[in-house]
Write a structure and sequence with these properties.
mainly alpha; 2 strands
Length: 228
Amino acid sequence: MCFVAIGCAIVAFEDYSGRGGGSSTQYFIVLYFGYCVQSAILTGDGKLNLNRGGIGGYLWKNLLIMLAVIIVGVGFPIVLGAASFSRDGFLLLCLAVVAILYPLLLVLVGTWPTAAIAGSKSGLADAFSRGRYGLVPTFLRLFAGLVLPFVAAFILITAAASMSYEADSVFQGGKLNLIALAVLVISQSASTFGICYVSIVLARKFQISEGWPRGGTVSATNVSEVFR
């Protein structure tokens, strides 16, 4: 659960200090966590092996995918004329586009960064060829792993607000808000589990498409070791 604790600490520190930059730090931690999970699967024994290599390629390829998502996620609504919407309406539309586009792009080319961990020389075109098969069920799995945790966190915050609890700030007036802290821990745990699930889906898709004889099905016990 160290990744959950780190994520909570970053959010709490950003809230307490009033500084920005926490989102980018969290994203790099998410990428590193995904790398750890996929590396554990690709070793075939379900254990972390950070000496396997490929983290550089894994990071920059995922950053390129995210950059493409951001460009399309903002550009597409603008092309549709959404720039005339209110600020909240425009942001909501952008988030909706990103929520659909990001898992879709990961389905199509998400095994491209995974290949770097496996030491494979396969490129973007090879990843696209792998991604075309089983597109719909894989998209639904990735959508659930990436989007549902954020939806659950939003519901929790809304429910707390409806009961006159402020759950959007961990610190209020210099004091710790226990309700907000509980919501943060729950949402971070759900998000971490979702990233773990998405990473497993992509790693297994890569293994199956490459015909790897090793790896097999990762047991729940081995997966739980990643959270420690």
